[in-house]
Design brief:
Blueprint lengths: L3 H22 L6 H8 L3 H7 L3 H25 L4 H8 L6 H14 L3 H22 L2 H19 L12 H16 L2
Length: 185
């Protein structure tokens, strides 16, 4: 009999596999057979943990919600404030948050309304987390759009050849200085 830790580890591997397939090839590429093969488990093992493709999708969405909880808490706890945390982490790629967010976006793009709602909720929670520092709804929205651009430039730097980014952390620091100017009262 598998221990609860083994079971949780397998479920995480399955969610990782499903997320990777969604990101790499979209919802159509993320078949149950492909998920099981990528995770290194049998299809029966997959169905033991997630009884359907819809259950896998909900698992990805639930994972994102947990990571958003952690992200918003870290924003509030950052000694420099939520804006600094938000802008600096906008250049991070290859993280668990990055994978969960992009997998959820792929689900939303395939028409999954729960995924669309999860993305909207994420953005609303970021907006609310920024408001205590910026006190301006439009400025908080602008920071979210700035974050989107920072992420895209970090995830696909060759698409932005004219931008002198330097390192990701230097670029984030420069953009944080811009964000501070934009949100100064």
């Amino acid at each position: 009999m598998a221990s609860p830790t083994d079971s949780a580890h397998t479920a995480d591997r399955l969610l990782d596999a499903y997320s990777g397939l969604l990101i790499d090839g979209g919802e159509r590429a993320a078949t149950l057979d492909a998920v099981a093969a990528r995770a290194g488990v049998s299809k029966g093992g997959l169905l033991y943990h997630f009884g359907s493709k819809d259950a896998l999708a909900q698992g990805v969405i639930d994972r994102l919600a947990t990571l958003v909880d952690e992200d918003v808490a870290a924003m509030a706890a950052d000694p420099e404030g939520p804006v600094a945390f938000f802008i600096r982490t906008s250049t991070e790629t290859g993280t668990a948050f990055d994978a969960a967010y992009n997998a959820t976006v792929a689900l939303a793009q395939s028409g999954d309304t729960s995924a669309t709602a999860a993305i909207a909720d994420t953005r609303a929670r970021w907006h609310a987390a920024l408001m205590p520092e910026v006190n301006d709804a439009d400025a908080a929205s602008a920071l979210i759009f700035m974050s989107d651009g920072l992420y895209l430039a970090s995830a696909n730097p060759e698409a932005y050849p004219a931008v002198n980014r330097g390192s990701a952390s230097d670029f984030a620091d420069r953009m944080l200085a811009v964000a501070r100017r934009l949100t100064a009262h």
